[in-house]
């Protein structure tokens, strides 16, 4: 059971600079008054009334807190405290200051597969720990794979953002239509029962991108991306995979499998020859192979540009919404009570995209 403290967070922590922001709140650096230690404070707005769309439902925050309390692992962001007031909940989290893994890699001139594997091992170890406790992340993507710090020569991976995570109970059939299109598994699009195997599909996509600088199913539109996923429409183009080992391709192929039962688990991934080579020949192949750094840098630059563009778009929508609300002389009574929120362009419900697909086919 998640414990929410009713005390004022500012009695225990000094509130510092904003580190990031989203639809329902922001993350700020906070400093513990008793010890002087710095943490990250995740300030989340909670819905004041049930029909409001501005803010998070308290039960969803409670679920995220319970999951974070259950997954204490070196490669998963740690939760220290939770405070609650009338309008918001504040999660005190480990301060992860190293930035995104993909940004860290993009700053390098070159990277051997053996070096990339050290990061993949940490991701898989954190994920395997979650899965052993019947918890799936359901939103694995580069933005949610961070580094503990920028100073250490071998920084720790930290998996973050458990807002879509789910803990499975025996006999339960769970479905979800949320996720970022290019990383979601086919069973999400098809509204089939989900399992931790959906995370393993995302690992396959992330590995493909890491090695080549290409997204395997990315289309011109989200609809095209989803069609490519359902059709299993991807390949290892020699122009982008000329420096990739056959073991790495085999690793990806064993994850980008349509039937979730046939995908490798996190534990099986850690035993795959690409991650854990058995022979000297396998070790030599890894050390001769490298990621396509030139193309990876291009991919990461486009990704960061898209994130910035989406943030500007969201701000513009909010401004337009406020103007419309002020200009309305006789608003609907329901609208007066229920504030609206803009659509998240990075995490579109798969059900919405599926409806678009069926209407356009």
UniProtKB/TrEMBL annotation:
Question: InterPro entries from the entry?
Answer: Kinase-like_dom_sf, Prot_kinase_dom, Protein_kinase_ATP_BS, Ser/Thr_kinase_AS
Top-level enzyme category: transferase
Q: What is its EC number?
A: 2.7.11.1
Q: Spell out the molecular function terms from Gene Ontology.
A: ATP binding; protein serine/threonine kinase activity
Any one cellular-component term (Gene Ontology):
cytoplasm
Cited PROSITE patterns: PROTEIN_KINASE_ATP, PROTEIN_KINASE_DOM, PROTEIN_KINASE_ST
Which superkingdom, per the lineage? Eukaryota
The family classification in the record reads: Belongs to the protein kinase superfamily.
The identity of this protein, by name, is: non-specific serine/threonine protein kinase
UniProt organism field: Lates calcarifer (Barramundi)
Gene name for this UniProt entry: si:dkey-240h12.4
